[in-house]
Specification:
Immunoglobulin-like; 8 helices; about 375 residues; about 20% helix; Muramoyl-pentapeptide Carboxypeptidase, domain 2; alpha+beta; four-stranded antiparallel beta sheet
Amino acid sequence: MPTGKRIISLLLLCGVLCGCADNRANAETLPAANYVSRTEAVTTTTELFTAVSTEGVEASAQGIETTTAETEAITTTTTATTPETQATTVISQAQSSTRPPLAPSATDNGGAAKEYTNTITLNGPNLVYTGESFNFTYFISHRNAGRASVLWQCRGDSGSIDENGVFTAEKAGTVELYVSDISNGLTDSLLVHVVDSPEDVDFITEVNGIPIANKTYPVPKDYNPGLLSETYDAFLELKLAALNDGVEINFMSGYRSYEEQVEIYKNWNEVYSDGQADRVSSRPGHSEHQLGLAIDVNSIEFSFADTPEGLWLAENCWKYGFIIRYKEGTEEITGYMYEPWHIRYLGKELAKDVHFSGLTLEEYLGIDSWYRIENFVFDEEIE
């Protein structure tokens, strides 16, 4: 590379990193009232209010702070209804035969075939609600010459599992589920928590080692990791790549605590008096932002999807370990309206697999997303 071009490249890189550092130190957490979406199905009516400026509110345990912000929120009306899928004996909404296997890919990045010893792994979610049943058959990763018959066992008195891998949760407590390959005796186990209510969850639900937060799987109130370093480092890489392609992806909002989500959800309920708030905002304790693995970028308008930045993000974010979490037309699966600005960090390999599967994260992992409690009751101590 000629000396002049090398110097220009170095200057550009320094400028990008400095800008990202400034974003991290001064990233704006959007005023809750500004979380009003505009869709093809909504009709703009009237201005609600102007968000009060805020200063010095910590947005992350790693020092991300909000800056003074004044934004106008606009109320919207919608004719859409909220689909609520009720529990069935066996949860099957996302457990379809089209879901990719949870086992590692058969090839590495170079395309060379990987070699595996005989293994059997149980990857399912570690949370089931009392009175519900869950089919764990879909969560076996199996590596051998042929798919042998398996034997299921349950140790613990909080539930039982049948010969087909369907676990029925009977009372609160924990059980250890075992699956064995009859042909070679290989066994794996999974500790499963049975809870009566989302309020009883004091752990992070994982599926195949992936932390999950959605309407089914809550996050404990006191879980405060801040924006995880791997999430922010991946975002910096994404931002630099976007700049090299001539577009600018800006950090808007990262980690949010339980208490911050309370205020956001409150304001949404003031905007939507007809119960539609659950379509556009997570209840406290159910937000991916509290995991420290989600980032909102640039703009919370649906029109962002059609901008050069939005198009670039949708096409390229997987290369840096992110996915567009709430895809267009998937509200009945994810529980939320389309959010082209919301990206979730998964790591490069998994993000690639999910992106090219064309599935939502719920579909890919074989889980569902709907609230087990009809209405959220605000804690007076927090108010």
